[in-house]
Structures are given as C-alpha cells and as structure tokens.
Amino acid sequence: MFSSEVQNINRISPLEAGNYSQSRTLHNNEMLNTIRRSASFLKRGENSAKLIYEEQDHFRKWIQENVSKKCCTHFVESESTAKAMGPVCECGYPRSCHSEEALQAGRLQNEKWSNTKHLQQLPTDAFGDIAFEGQGQKSGKYVRVSNNTAPVTLYQLMTKYWGLNPPRLLISVTGGAKNFHLKPDLKFMFRRGLIKVAQSTGAWIITGGSFAGVMKYVGEAVRHCNMTSNYKEKQIVAIGIASWGIVHNRDSLVDVQGKFPATYYIDEANQGKLSCLDHNHTHFILVDDGTHGHYGVEISLRTQLEKYISKQRMGTEDAGLEIPIVCVALEGGPGTLNTIHSAMGNGTPCVIVEGSGRVADVLAGAADLPMAQITISFIQKQLRTFFADCYSMFSERDIILWTKKIQDIIRMRELLTVFRANTSGNDDLDVAILQALLKASSSSGHQWQENLDHQLQLAVAWNRLDIAKSHIFTDDKQWKSSHLHQATFAALVGNKPGFVELFLENGVNLSEFLSPRMLVRLYNNIPHYTPLYKKLRKVVDGEKQPQISDKLEKKRNVLLHHISVVLQELLGEFMEPLYKQPNISFRKSFNMTSINRQPDELYEGTLEDPERDLFIWAILLKRKNLASIFWVQGMDSIAASLVACKILKKISSDENDTDLYEEMEELAQEYEDQAVAW
Q1: How far is the C-alpha of 320 from the C-alpha of 174, rounded, in Å?
Q2: 125 neighbors 140 (Cβ within 8 angstroms)
Q3: Distance between CA atoms of 23 and 3, rounded to whole angstroms?
Q4: pTM score of the predicted model
C-alpha cells in the first residue's frame, strides 16, 4: 500500500505515483500485468511521487517565507464607488472580501482610509501552475506578489524555482493596452522578428500579460513559435507582469497551499473593466498593492525588476557582460510615451515600430527631424493625425508636455531606432533590435576598441553570426589577434564554430591565443553533464595534494596534467603524458585570493602545437564541427584522425547511454574513414 502522501499526489501525476491498478485497457497483456505486480516497479513509482511531493513542499515553504500579498485591514466604505455589488471599501474590494477584523476596525475607528496605514502584508495565497481551460495543453507558472517585493527575490523565483535559464537579452515590450489593428504584413514582420531575436539570443520577453493589445500580439507570436518548434531550447519565455487587482477570474488562482495546476478561464464577455490573462504567455507575476481595479500598479516593480536583471552577468562564456535590455514599442498612448521617456532616460535603447499607430507613429515622424522643427505646432499636427478620435481630450498643457518629452527622446538619438517595414533592406525587426543595442553600446562612452569588443561579445552571446559580419567586421575596422581572444574563448565554450572560423579569417593567431592559461580555462568551463567532466572530476578529486591547504580542497581546478591522465586512460598507458605535472613542491599553501591565478602560476611558456591541443579538446567534448576546423589547421591529419577514433570509441564503450554510444561510434567511424582516405 502507498502512503497517504503518495495517494494525495495521484491527482497531480497518476503515472508517476504508481497508480497503475486502474488501467484496464491493456489487461490482456501478460507482460504489463507482470510489471504492474513488480514490487520494485511500484516502489519506483512511489519514490517518484514522493520526490514530486517533496519538491512542491519545498517550493511552498519558500514561497510562504519569501513572497507576500497585501490585504486591507480597515474597511472604510467608499462614497464614490458604484455599489452594484454592495458596500465597497476605499481599497476597491467589496465588503465580502474583508475579514471580520477589518470590518470591526472600520466600525470602531472613524478615520480616513490610508494605503500606508490600512494595508498589511501576509504570505501570498496564489502561486503554482496555471492551465488555461479550452486552450489545449497551454500552461504556465504564476505568483501573486506584493508591490514591495525585492527584485532579487523574483529573480531567484524565476531562475531557481521556475527553472528559467538566465537570459542573454531582455526585451521589454510596451504599447497599446487595448486592442488595436496591425496591418497583416506588419503583424507578420513583428511576429517573425520578435521570435527570431528571442530564439537566437535566448531572450526573455516581458509584457503586461493581458489578453489584449500589444500583449496579445506578443502572445500570438509565442504561440506560433511554440507550435512550429521541435526543440525545448527554442521555446520562448514570455513573462506577463500585471496588476493582481485587475485580473478577471483571479479567485480561481487562490489557494494557500498553491495550485498545481489552477484552471483559469478567459471570459472576455464578462470581464467588465478588468482584464483576462493571455494564455500564450509562459509565466505571470501578479503585483498586488492591496487595491482592486487599479491599472498600473505593477509599473514600479516591473521597472525595478528589469533594471535588476539588466545588471546580472551572462553565462560562463560571456563572463563580464551584463544582460542587455531593449524596449520595443507598438502603438500606445500617454503611458507608452512615459515608459519610453523613462527607459531612454535610464540608458535603455528603444525600438519604435512605425505603422503600428498613435505614439509609435508620432515618434517615428519626429525621429529624423532637426530639433528646431520639433515644435509645439508640429506635435499638435501629429496628435491630430494619429489621435484623431480623442484629440479633443488633449489640453494645451498636455500638448506642451508631450512636446517636451518628445524633444527629450529625440535628443537621445543614439538610443532611438525606428523600424520602418517598407524601407528597402529593413524587413527584419530582429536586426533592428540588435542594431539598436549595438548602436547604444557604441555611444556608451567607452574607448573605440572597448566598444568593438563589447559588441563582438554580444554578437557571440546572441549567436548572431550575421550581425557580426554585417555590422562589426566591416572594412573600416582593423583587428589585432589579441582583440579577438576573449570572443574566441566565448565561441569555443559556447560551441559556435561559425564564429571561430570568422575570427580565424580575421586574424586570430592560435599560437598567440592558446596559452597554457587559456587551455586550462577551456577545460574548466566544460558542461557538467558531459562524460569528460565526470572523468576529469574523478581524476582531480582522487589526486592527493598535501601541499595545498584544506580550504582549497572544495574548489580545485582542472589542470593540464589531469588532462594527460584522462588521455592515457583513453589511449593507453603507453602514451607519453601530453602535459607534464608542474613542480609545486615549493608551495606551502594557497590563499583564497590566489585561486583564480592558480593556472597562470603553475603553467608558463607556450604550447608547441595549439591546433592539436584544440583538436583534442573538441574531440573530448564530442564537438564535431569545432574539431573539423582544427583538424584542417593541423599538420598531421592522419594521426589526428586515428587519435580521435580511439578516444571516441573508448568513451562510447564506457557509457551506458545507448544514444550517446551510437553517436560517438558514428563519429569515431567518420574519423577512421578520414584516416584511411588520407
């Protein structure tokens, strides 16, 4: 019999919980019956269910300890709010949504309601998975958070508990919150460009998350991508940050223990002044300030979160680069203008989509004009054109304020890019977005070479070889081999052979690039899931080093003589050590500040055959395309092919993974054929 915990979890994952006894469709299959009766099989199901339960319980505890909601503690009846639902508090919620304590406090204390005095933070009661009823298999993650939540907490939630890989680009989409029309060709270009840039760069897209306006267009783009993509790594992350108090049907998301999943209905017909969530977004952060029906509550926290994310560093191969952020604007009203003005004031580049309407077209019309022509009368004319249906609502003061903000925006031309779909050669929004980031980088105040280095590392991080060729490696720029070393390292670690070839074509000298220090860096940045990583850790952890202090035992680097040990294991002990162990007997101890300099101090001089060393590194990591580059560069192609064949066959024989075995055997056969043919 299963424990009660396991039985309770059956509703989440019946298969994993081991609840196989209900299956009747295959009752004639004797083998299945035997498996179902197997105690070990049932035990595995039980253990799997327990693991799910434990993970959810850990997540639940973390949420309750770190994430809050806001609740009104003092019911004060509003005189201005409509009372179709009965008495309504100044917080916007009806009487029925208040606790007895809040009602009693309102009766006993005759005072004016205050959002600083009469709101209380409590552990959140809405989090988990969200499944959209009637929308197929679409589901996502959601959480209700106080508007005072620290951005670091939200980032930890997204990366650790929601399992999102840190982005290499943050795309903040703003614009019309109500439904508006996009011409079919522009809609197609927006969808194609947004998805292409998100897929190629591993970006996060952040919107307001509602089933309307620009957010709906983003959702449609995500849906199209996820329907046509076959690979998990190409799934788009679209994060909706909305006000909790404006979400229609939010009661279905509430459960103090979390919901896995919560079933959510999109009901536009009855949403009234509220908004439904967009079913194509993948994650939702619902910002709660304790009020109901107030739009814009999330703006401050969204701004803080985007700023925090943009200060984080990218992955290992992109060390030193902060995550870039770009704002993309379609259509929009006064709120969109304020968002663009604020973003650019903080140094964020913005891409305006011309032809989408209203604010976007007002700015597009002014973008190329001299400042002297951006006058009050000009803006007045623009507003009459693009806000024809509501122009009468603009006061003289409004027009003056709009003129001032638009002038401020145009003064920052280096941060403003207008995407004009009908311009020849400019039909790709993704290129416009990446150009905007490169343009902003070139005007950041750094030295010329620093700007080029930064732009190049961004192109590698985004895996956009086309951008590097067309916008960085131009005829007017001269490169030294040393200028490309960090980018070459990033391309190698990131397994981007196209960039490696580009850098070799533009002057990288492998003898200058591949110092012992650089080779050690490469071996210390291999993925943890690879067979090579497991072999190296076994060698490193099994090596006795009494000269090194115990404090460093927990963080010992892979050194070159460790590679020799692995190669002797793979090729046979008859092989001479490729890299000799350094003499460190004079070292009494290491201190923590010297650990990052350890490879520099232990290995000096140069490597006699960098092409061979890089070829072996690539073969050990099973990176066929990179290995081919260095195989061609090397002098002894026959010997290299035979070594590769031997290494791959030995690694494949040590692995229990059938797919990996077959893949490595196939690659080994290719190198054997090359050796014979040569």
Answers
A1: 29
A2: no
A3: 20
A4: 0.83
Q: Rounded to whole angstroms, how far apart are CA atoms 553 and 540?
A: 10
Model confidence pLDDT, tens digit, residues 426-435: 568 999 999 8
Sole residue written with tokens 């150009």: 435
**Amino acid at position 342, single letter:** S
Rg of the chain taking only CA atoms, in angstroms: 30
**Cis ω before 94 (30° cut-off from 0):** no
Domain ranges of the chain: 4-66, 68-123, 445-508, 517-677
Asked if residue 155 lies in contact with residue 307, where contact means CB atoms within 8 angstroms, the answer is no
Q: What percent of the chain has pLDDT over 70?
A: 79
**Count of residues in the chain:** 678
Q: What are phi and psi of 469, to 5 degrees?
A: -70, -40
Give residue 10's pLDDT.
31
Half-sphere exposure of 642 (CA within 13 A, CB side): 9
d(CA 64, CA 674): 60
Please name the residues in contact with 442: beta carbons below 8 A apart, sequence gap of 6 or more.
414, 451, 455
Under a CB-based contact definition with an 8 Å cutoff, are residues 89 and 77 in contact? Answer: yes
**667: confidence class by pLDDT, cuts 50, 70, 90:** low
CA dist 296 and 287 (Å) reads 10
Instruction: Work out the angle at residue 263's Cα, subtended by the Cα atoms of residues 259 and 268, and round it to the nearest 5 degrees.
Output: 135
* 8 A C-beta contact, residue 332 and residue 409: no
- Asked whether the predicted pLDDT for residue 552 surpasses 70, the reply is no
Q: Count the Cβ atoms, other than its own, within 10 Å of residue 1.
A: 6
Alpha-carbon span 338 to 145, nearest angstrom = 24
What is the arithmetic mean of pLDDT over 363-383? Answer: 96
- Give the phi and the psi of residue 236 in degrees, each rounded to 5: -85, 140
- Report the interhelical angle of 485-493 vs 448-462 (nearest 10°): 10
Q: Which residue in this structure is represented by tokens 């035992």? A: 553
Beta-carbon contacts of 627 under 8 Å, excluding residues fewer than 6 positions away, are 615, 618, 619, 644
Q: Burial of 575 by CB count in 10 Å (0-12 exposed, 13-18 middle, 19+ buried)?
A: middle
